Amino acid sequence: MPTTLAPVSIAELTEVAKRVRSHIVQMVFDAQSGHPGGSLSSVEIGVSLFWNHLRCDPANAEWPDRDRFILSKGHATPFLYSVLAERGFFSTELLRKFRTLGSPLQGHPSMGAVPGVEMSSGSLGQGLSFAIGHALSGRLDRKDFRCWVLMGDGELNEGQVWEAAQAVPHFDLGDRVIAMVDRNGIQNDGFGDKIMKIHPAEMWRGFGWHVIECDGHDMAAVDQALAEAEKPHEKPRVVVAQTVKGKGVSYMENNPGFHGKAPTKDQLIQALEEIAGGLK
Amino acid sequence: MTAPTAPAAATREAYPVALAQLVEQGIDVVALDADLSASTMGYQFGDKYPERWHSVGIAEANMVDIAAGYAAAGKTAFVASFASFLPGRCFDQLRTSVAQPKGGLSVKCVASHGGVTVGEDGASAQALEDLTLMTSLIPFDVIVPADYESARQAIIAVGKTTRPAYVRTGRPKIAALYDASYRFEIGKATVLRPGNDVTLIACGILVGIALEAANLLSNEGVSARVIDMATIKPIDRDAVLAAARETSAIVTAEEHQTHGGLGTAVARVLAENLPTPIAFVGVDRYGTSGKWDELLGYFGLTAEHIAASARDVIARKR
Predict the structure, then answer these.
(1) For position B65, what pLDDT does the model report?
(2) Residue A213 and residue A65: Cα distance in Å, rounded?
(3) β-strand A186-187 against A190-191: which pairing, if any?
(4) A172 touches chain B (CB under 8 A)
(5) Do the chains contact at A119 and B74, CB–CB below 8 Å?
(6) Residue A112 to residue B103, Cβ atoms within 8 A
């Protein structure tokens, strides 16, 4: 029965994360476009989830009982495709075709194009609602799969997120829908505090959620936070991971300029060296 | 043409009946409403199948994406609201999450209260743009039934495809055009009255009014064909081209603006294949309050106006 690979050691997850980060910068360099910053900030969340928590079968991606991973922050495709490829959903060779004509790896996720992409996203704020539909269907069919939804913190500006946030507790879906927020503090136009200052933890609590906060780049802390989110609780769970945009590449870290920009050749070489050296 | 004996009924009343019949036929249907279920009639389905129906509150965007998730998990997911809000409050969700996944997801919109016959609620509630928006979403079928029986069969028909669809229904009770011997088919028009001088192509409530216009024209010795073009997309090209060949003059009539919608779809078929004089009857300004039948008169959605348009277009024949 295909399930998680758990328990995978933190040391092993950390090595996977390095490979995922290398793919991310290489893909964006190859395509000379894409979104490296918000991909690098999500890496620990994705690796912990796909290796230790998400029940899935890469060889049978449509398995009806699988847990769903729904990437609501759809611009983070370098992250999504790298994690899926490393987990075995498709060949890492395909990553070189990112954003090219005829490739299934579009700039934003296209449902049905490759195994493991659960939703067409890219227009922000829709993933949590989509997950509710999957979860209600699971309940109707008496299946016990979970839906894990990853959102950006800038994405929380979208009103639809809060339409969905009120609906998850209303429909009593806390054991079926788990939300995750990549709190990297930067969105397209710059620092979130200047564009639209929000207080994610308080907002989620106000909507009746149990908030689990963690350092989003401490692999052990992320792994523990996701484990806590899986435990039964009277409220639905949201993991708010404090992260750094561009994490792992010094000149991208906390730099709004690398939300949606590709590195030069020299910058790529530097990035790959820094990633190989591990997180500081 | 059949001679129906059914009482007058609103097309929206067919919605919960059709949903229940789909479930009875083994289709794995779920349905969602956004706090207008007393008007869309969705609550009646909810009363019968509570585990298959949800109210999501006043949140149309959330509703559409929940339906998309349901469809991704294998369900046939219906959503209902007023045609002003569905698609008006959730067009991006219909585009990105429903239309764009490979082939489109099996989400069916049944939008009630289309057009000016909403009545007293006025402009904000009177959808005049929904057909333009929905015909722009590539995999969607777009259907505007002309009476209760047609609406019932159309909702069942879209529930049996895997494509996304938009079915527009109306608020007022209108006369039956069809009885149970009628067979609705997506993409197939119905010729309700033969004629050689001009063809009146209508959808929704304007079909019955076009039949009245044909009577008026008949009194003047003008033979008008009347076509119920319930499916706007994919449109019945053969019926349009046969009308153009055989009558050489076309009038379209719809409870919608003429930029997009039925008239535009008919004109495109003609322009590509057989340019033919055409006149468009529709509503090219925003609505206002009034009784629904008064509003039809106020906006020129009348047998007299359709007949006048027919005379104009006949005069333009070469």
Answers:
(1) 98
(2) 28
(3) antiparallel
(4) no
(5) no
(6) yes
Instruction: Give the DSSP letter string of A173-219.
Output: -TTTEEEEEEE-SEETTEEHHHHS---HHHHHHHTT-EEEEEETT-H
**Positions in chain A short of pLDDT 50:** 1
Q: Which tokens in the block code for residue B200?
A: 């009146």
Q: What is the pLDDT of residue A6?
A: 83
**Band of pLDDT at residue B209, cut at 50, 70 and 90:** very high
- Asked if A267 reaches chain B (Cβ–Cβ under 8 Å), the answer is no
Nearest residue, CB atoms, A130 vs list B97, B102, B103: B97
A142 burial level (CB within 10 Å; 0-12, 13-18, 19+)? exposed
- In whole angstroms, give the CA distance from residue B223 to residue B210: 13
**CB environment A108-130: b (16+ within 10 A), e (fewer):** bbbbeebbbbbbbbbbbbbbbbb
**Range A44-66 burial, b when 16+ CB lie within 10 A, else e:** bbbbbbbbbbbbbbbeebeeeeb
The minimal CB distance from B75 to the residues A123, A125, A137 is found for A137
The DSSP letter of residue B13 is G
Residues of A in contact with B52 (CB under 8 A): 140
Burial status of residue A277 (CB atoms within 10 A of its CB: 0-12, 13-18, 19 or more): exposed
CB A156 within 8 A of CB A204: no
Integer-rounded Cα Rg, in Å, for chain A is: 17
**The residue count for chain B:** 318
* 8 Å CB contact of A137 and B70: yes
Q: How does the average pLDDT of chain B come out, rounded?
A: 97
Tell me the residue type at A199. Answer: H
Spatial CA neighbour of B178 closest among B202, B148, B201, B199: B148
Residue of chain B whose Cα is closest to the Cα of A123: B96
Contact list, B64 vs chain A (CB under 8 Å): 129
Residue A162 in contact with partner chain B when CB distance is under 8 A: no
Tens digit of each residue's pLDDT (9 = 90 or more) over B252-266:
999 999 999 999 999
d(CA B192, CA B211): 8
The model's pTM is 0.97
In order of B6, B149, B178, B195, B201, the CA distances from B2 in angstroms are 12, 12, 6, 17, 18
Active site positions of B, annotated: 60
> Is residue A168 within 8 Å of residue B69, measured between CB atoms?
no
User: What value does the mean pLDDT take over residues B109-138?
Assistant: 96
Which residue, chain included where needed, has tokens 């000149």?
A251
Q: Quick one: how many helices (H) and strands (E) in chain A? A: 10, 7
Contact, B99 vs B68, CB < 8 A?
Answer: no
A91 Cβ contact partners less than 8 Å away, ≥ 6 residues apart: A85
Contact list, A147 vs chain B (CB under 8 Å): 69
- Name the burial class of residue B225, with classes exposed (0-12), middle (13-18) and buried (19+) by CB atoms within 10 angstroms of its CB: buried
Q: What pLDDT does residue A2 have?
A: 56
Q: How far is C-alpha B88 from the geometric centre of its chain's CA atoms? A: 16
Q: What is d(CA B266, CA B241) in angstroms, rounded to the nearest whole number?
A: 9
